Write the structure tokens for this entry.
Amino acid sequence: MNAPSPRGAAVGRGIGIGLMYGLFRPRVLGAWRVPSSGPVILAVNHAHNIDGPMLMGTAPRPVHFLIKKEAFVGPLGPFLHSIGQVRVDRSVADRTAVTGALDVLKDGGVLGIFPEGSRGEGDFASLRSGLAYFALRSGAPVVPVAVLGSTDRRGRLVRGLPPLRGRVDLVYGEAFQAGDGSGKRTRAALDSATVRLQERLTAHLENARRLTGRREKT
């Protein structure tokens, strides 16, 4: 399998910009907090299928997302590969996906992760260890991102999508290091980093809700 393509991710960003700003009304807050160069991990809450494309179309840099293998079906599979996305099998320790994600960071790219692993309440209540692993292994800073409003059911014309021309808020937080500065990658260090990440991500989500006035669950 070829390494995720930076050029492909740039093409994906262009497609995302056209789709997201054409169909919805994204309001992007704090995007300047994403480092303009070098490796970075975007940790995004996940309550809706549109969250990934929304980030790809509104982030200030092209993003390579870790995407479950179930999405790579039919013609969508080759398309996702062509725009630099990383296929991951969540049922096993997917070494190919791990290598691809680390290659993105090694090359100074942006890796997008839904740290909850799958769609849910989108409240960062249950984090898997994948985010902590990539953050500790690469040393890349983590930028929390809250997507709010994508699950709003009012005015929907298509089930499963936000209302056309509906407002969706994307709030970027401050970049931070997941580790404690020791450089350790032990199981204990991974567990500690996961707790630290959950605290920071949850705090960012609450702050984003206050900032945007969206108090409902995502």
